[in-house]
Amino acid sequence: MADLFRPRWREGNDPFRRIVVQTTLRFMEVEAAGGIVLVFAAAVALIWANLDFGSYDSFWHTHIKLDLAIWSFDQSLQHVVNDVMMVVFFLVVGAEIKREFTHGELRNPRQAALPIVAALGGMVVPAALYAALNAGGEGSSGWGIPVATDIAFALGVLALVGRGVPVQLKVFLLTLAVADDVGGILIIAIFYSDSIQIEWILGMIGAIAFLLLLKRAGFRHSGIHAIGGVFLWLTLWEAGVHATLAGVILGLIVPADALYDDKGITRRIDYLLQRLRYVQEDPDPAVREHDSHEALRNVEHVAREGLSPLERLEENMAPISAFVVVPIFALANAGIHITGDSIDAALSSNIAWGIFIGLLLGKFVGIVGASALAIRLGIAFKPEQLRWSHLGGAALLAGIGFTVAIFIANLSFASGESELLEGAKIGIFAASIVAAVLGFVMLRWVRPRY
């Protein structure tokens, strides 16, 4: 029966659909698919940069120019990826945060307490360890780098562990990552913005007010939100606040409730189908065609509004974020020219060691320690199905800080500080790989509790 509702472009026995389209769609449904594509893109970037760093560097520093009468844009291709395309990534992050607060684990304060407190510990301790190693040094601005967790990588590794992983652990790690995203977004907004332009801040407030008024007035079409989002991005860009935050704000504003509940959908669809059958018996062809089209448009409206704008946004944009935007971001930013000198420099760099220790040790100590303290004080409770070794494995996976960590590293060090940025990226890579391996081994070793 489900085959009746599949789009025609997906079906068919011709080689292209059978080998390319259907195989790709099946792969995208695999839980670890986003992480696999991300790893592949990072590997391609590393290979490209080490085979011909000159072409890699010149390609991503090609400038894109746009000169309009009232506004001009002149940035490198890498900045276009980081400042424009990554809006989609942060839009999905904002939508996930909104969903968790309205319909997910963060809606229940008692259930949400453990991952939220764990996330707080997993941000404070890594930042403190990094700051202790780099206080007063040239890398002091990078304290926010080890705060981040890459949820695509972490959930991908968790999926590879297999059936022994309790559902509660996946919920814990996902909720922790969402809370971690909230902290990371606040850090970017407060500590990694340029000099603030007050007049554009007022424009940003106006854009947000416009979107909120549209929401209050009942406008639910994605095109309206897209127009408001573009204006919001522009005001943030000119204000000196990192423009990708426009995605987060838009994701938080999009309505999270469907217009019709299940009973309302059933009642309206039944009526419209009866109406459709009735009008098709009209002897006048012109009236029959007009009324049939009107009934079908109404059926389409009811079916669309059976999902909230937030659900539709996630359904449409999450695959684009996971399989297009984030891999391109990795391709544009993961290319490190690895030589003996760069490795020696990283081994003697407080920046690289601060990130490595922060992501690996800081995340583990911060998450496990904060969880234990919260449970001991009665602030939170640990689900019976979870062992402490489960939480330890999740804490290690939280040390995979690839995407957002590189994003914050790019904000921490100016374009003239390429050696500092290279050391930071080596620290991120090394910590993420070790965290993934240790987390996988630890969770494979733990027996499930039934």
What is the secondary structure topology, with strand pairs?
Elements: H1 15-28, H2 33-51, H3 53-60, E1 63-67, E2 72-76, H4 77-102, H5 109-134, H6 151-161, H7 167-191, H8 198-217, H9 222-239, H10 245-253, H11 262-279, H12 285-305, H13 309-333, H14 340-347, H15 350-376, H16 388-397, H17 402-412, H18 418-445
Residue-averaged pLDDT, rounded?
A: 84
Cα radius of gyration in angstroms: 24 Å
Percent helix: over 70%
> What is the approximate shape?
globular
Order of helices and strands: HHHEEHHHHHHHHHHHHHHH
How many extended strands? Answer: 2
CATH class of the largest domain: Mainly Alpha
Which residues sit in consecutive blocks of at least 5 with pLDDT less than 50?
1-5
Strand content: under 5%
Largest sheet: spatial strand order: 1-2
With helices defined by DSSP (H or I, 4 residues minimum), what is the helix count?
18
Assembly context of the chains? single chain
State the major sheet: 2 strands, antiparallel
Name the CATH superfamily classification of the largest domain: Na+/H+ antiporter like domain
In the CATH hierarchy, the third-tier topology of the largest domain is known as: Na+/H+ antiporter like fold
Q: What is the CATH architecture descriptor of the largest domain?
A: Up-down Bundle
Going by helix content, strand content and strand pairing, the class is mainly alpha
The end-to-end span amounts to 36 Å
